[in-house]
């Protein structure tokens, strides 16, 4: 198997995981969608412990950003207390504040495969409520787009 084939298979595996965990698709549908055998999907599911991911609490990047923003505010408030105590020394949490700010900025910019897939599914679901005919036309195009990435 060439390096390109390995990369392609790894991408398919990642999309299969996303479809299974977040898209609520069964193994047969995923196998057909990605043009791999059902046995391959089954092996990926077992090796990657997808069932555990599916049943466990999954946390989105948006939820992580919200939690990091709360932490950042706490760190800033704590830093203010150090300054109010007339302590001219450097804020001991300055490094944590900088790292937290960078993590928030990264997560807000990041749009990985999971986010693209989740956004597409959410859009098609919304569109289906607004105009089911257009949703039926867009869904296959979205699937073709996902396949083009794999």
Automatic annotation (TrEMBL):
Q: Name one Pfam family in it.
A: DUF1804
| The name this protein goes by in its record | DDE transposase family protein
Species this protein is from: Flavipsychrobacter stenotrophus
